[in-house]
Description:
The protein has helices spanning about 10, 35-40, 60-65, 75-85, 90-95, 100-110, 120-135; strands at about 1-5, 50, 70. It is mostly helical. The protein is globular. The two termini are about 25 Å apart.
Amino acid sequence: MFYSPLQPKIANTVLSDDGDPRPFLKWVGGKGQLLVDLRNRIPENYGTYFEPFVGGGAVFFSESPTRAMLLDINSELVNAYSVVRDDVDGLIKELHKHRYEEEHYYKVRNADRLPSYSKWNAAKRAARLIFLNKTCFNGLYRVNSKGQFNVPIGKYANPTI
């Protein structure tokens, strides 16, 4: 997947307090805690930045390269990055439909078990992934042998969706 530079309206949705882009997902195995060491190992000048296991994208967002190729085997994750790049307004509209309530969580979590899920548009699928990521137990992404998301709801005071 080719990921173009962050557009200004996208960058404004994922900025840290110091104005730097930051990941919009938490991801098990993320490299956020290793950033200082990793950044010392990245050359100052390079052409295209390649990230074969993007996950939450901590290194990508830290580097903010002008040209990048982001890859991951998780098609739902790749879809989310594509939607953030191509349809952030549609994504935000879909995210506003979610609420942190147990019944709603399990309805959304179990949507991938229904035949209608294959007809969901990209923004709705990306919003589902982000909602589940922000409200499931520890931000885990885990699926069963049928490829169905199966992480229980997490306990949060007021998760930011």
